[in-house]
Amino acid sequence: MKKVYYLKTCSTCIRILKDLNLSSDYVLQDIKTEPITVKQLEEMKTLSGSYEALFSKRSKLYKEMDLKNQTLEERDYKHYILEHYTFLSRPVFIIDDAIFIGNSKKNIELVKQVIL
Fold first, then answer.
1. 50 vs 34, 78, 97, 112, CA distance in Å?
2. Is 6 left (phi over 0), alpha (psi -120 to 50) or beta?
3. Is there a contact between 103 and 58 (Cβ–Cβ < 8 Å)?
4. What DSSP string runs through 64-88?
5. Which of 21, 37, 41, 114 is deepest in the core (most CB within 10 A)?
6. Does residue 25 contact residue 112 with C-beta atoms inside 8 Å?
7. 26 to 8, 22, 35, 75, 95: CA distances (angstroms)
């Protein structure tokens, strides 16, 4: 499987996708217009090892809801990601059996190595 979960309104996601110039083999899913399903999130969790690894602590809602001062468990991370797209660290690339989460330079370089 070759899939990218991203946000069409996120300039960073769009810049990364343009830079990577992905082939038509990739399925792009805008998580705002096509929310992540429980099954999709569980698949991502299986590849990443935890829901926390998929969770964005840089999200505006994370700060607004004062989640940093709460003790969150795996079920909480899953709940918040399913509740609102902003909690998914993006973009998320699934390439065969590998997952790449987030927009760090290191992560995007790894994606480039895999797709080339």
1. 22, 9, 15, 24
2. beta
3. no
4. HTTGGGS---HHHHHHHHHH-GGGB
5. 41
6. no
7. 15, 7, 18, 29, 9
Q: For residue 111, give Cα distances in angstroms to 12, 20, 36, 71.
A: 15, 9, 21, 32
- CA R_g for the chain: 14
The pTM of this model reads 0.93
Tell me the per-residue pLDDT of 81-111, one tens digit each, with 9 for 90 and over: 999 999 999 999 999 999 999 999 999 999 9
Q: What is the distance between the alpha carbons of residues 20 and 7, in angstroms, rounded to a whole number?
A: 16
Of 38, 49, 36, 48, residue with least CA distance to 88: 36
Tokens 């992905």, located at residue: 22
